[in-house]
Structure formats: structure tokens, C-alpha cells
Design a protein that fits this description.
Helix 2 packs across helix 5. The protein is built from 5 helices and no strands. It has one domain. The radius of gyration is 18 Å and the shape is globular. It is an all-alpha fold. The longest helix has 24 residues. It binds heme C. The site of heme C has 20 residues, from helix 2 and helix 4. This is Cytochrome c domain-containing protein. One of its GO terms (molecular function) is electron transfer activity. Keywords: Heme, Iron, Metal-binding, Signal.
Length: 128
């Protein structure tokens, strides 16, 4: 029993040190979520845009960058907010509600929506 306690103690201590180390590696500390199964062949128009239309365009129209309305969003996002193939360093991903949106909007995107946006950027951020 004592041995078990020691094992638990040692592993939690090393986990703790490891997470501090990780914080230092990321220059802008964001709460990187666990990305569940990534969807394949994500479509910007039929999968990504509906997330913006449902959650973002009450605020993000022509007067607030990025303009996330259908028909404007792609040009507003790529390349200024999205580095194709590199979701974690893309400002769009870093700024999602629940991850690091600069303003508390009172909600978080679902894991599924986060995974769709992550996968779309990861797959090359195409206007598809
Ligand atoms: C309640 C209004 C509101 C909603 C809803 C909202 N945002 Fe924002 N967002 C803002 C405001 C205001 C800012 C600018 C805050 C600042 O710069 O201090 C901002 C900033 C951002 C930025 C950074 C812009 C920059 O140039 O630095 C991104 C990216 C962003 N929002 C994406 C989103 C996405 C994606 C959604 C939907 C999932 C969303 N926002 C929902 C109000 C909102």
C-alpha cells in the first residue's frame, strides 16, 4: 500500500513538472483541447461556415474583424488568421470561444465544432 502511494506521488509530481515545462514552450499559452477523432475531407462551405453562422455573426460582420458572414469569411480568414496546415499557430484557432477568444462571449464551441475547424486548417484550409 505504501509502495502504491509512492508510485502515485511520483507520477503526479512528474506530470506536474511536465505541464510547467510545456507552458514555457508555447509563447501564447492557450488551453489546447483534446481533439477527438478528426473528421476527414472537411468542407469549408458545408461544415465550417455553419459554425460561424450559428455562433459568430451576431458580432463578426463588416465592422468587426474577422468578418465571418458567408461569402466574406474565407477571404477575411485566409491568410490573415489561418496558417494552412498549422492549426495551433493559427490565430483563428487560438481565438475560438473556449480556447482563447479575447472577449468572454459566454459560451464555448463544442468539441465537435473545434475538431471540424482544426481539421479544416490541418487539411490545407481550402475554399471547398
Ligand atoms: C458577443 C460578440 C462576439 C461573438 C459571439 C464572437 N466574437 Fe470574436 N470577437 C469579438 C470582439 C469584440 C473581439 C475583439 C476583442 C478585442 O480585440 O479585444 C473579437 C475577437 C475575435 C478574434 C480576434 C480578432 C483579431 O483581429 O485579433 C477572432 C479570431 C474571433 N473573435 C473569432 C470569433 C469566432 C470564430 C466566433 C464564433 C465561434 C466569435 N469570435 C464569436 C466579439 C465576438
Amino acid at each position: 500500500m505504501k509502495k502504491l502511494f509512492q508510485i502515485v506521488l511520483v507520477s503526479s509530481l512528474s506530470l506536474l513538472c511536465f505541464s510547467c515545462y510545456y507552458d514555457e514552450l508555447i509563447d501564447r499559452p492557450i488551453d489546447i483541447p483534446e481533439i477527438p477523432d478528426l473528421p476527414e475531407n472537411v468542407s469549408f462551405s458545408t461544415q465550417v461556415q455553419p459554425i460561424f453562422t450559428t455562433n459568430c455573426i451576431t458580432c463578426h460582420t463588416s465592422s468587426l474583424n474577422p468578418d465571418l458572414r458567408a461569402g466574406y469569411s474565407y477571404n477575411a480568414l485566409v491568410p490573415d488568421y489561418v496558417i494552412a496546415g498549422d492549426p495551433l499557430n493559427s490565430k483563428l484557432f487560438q481565438s475560438l470561444p473556449g480556447i482563447g477568444h479575447p472577449l468572454n462571449v459566454g459560451f464555448e464551441l463544442s468539441d465537435e465544432d473545434v475538431a471540424i475547424i482544426y481539421a479544416w486548417i490541418d487539411q490545407g484550409a481550402e475554399n471547398n
